[in-house]
Amino acid sequence: MKVENSDVVIVGSGVAGLICALSLDKNFKIILITKKKLKDSNSYLAQGGISVCRGKEDREDYIEDTLIAGHYKNNKEAVEILVDESEEAIKTLIENGVKFTGDEKGLFYTREGGHRKFRILYCEDQTGKYIMESLIEKVLERDNIKIIEDCEFLDIIEKENTCLGILAKKEEKFAIKSKFTVLATGGLGGIYKNTTNFSHIKGDGIAIAIRHNIELKDISYIQIHPTTFYTKGNERKFLISESVRGEGAVLLNQRLERFTDELKPRDKVTKAILEEMKKDKSEYEWLDFSTINLDIKERFPNIYNYLMKKGINPIKDKVPVVPAQHYTMGGIKVDMNSKTSMKNLYAIGEVACTGVHGQNRLASNSLLESVVFGKRASQSIIDENNISVYNNITDDIFKNIVDRVIVTNETENKNIIMQRIREDEFEKNR
Question: For residues 214 and 125, what is the distance between their CA atoms, to the nearest angstrom?
Answer without folding.
Answer: 37
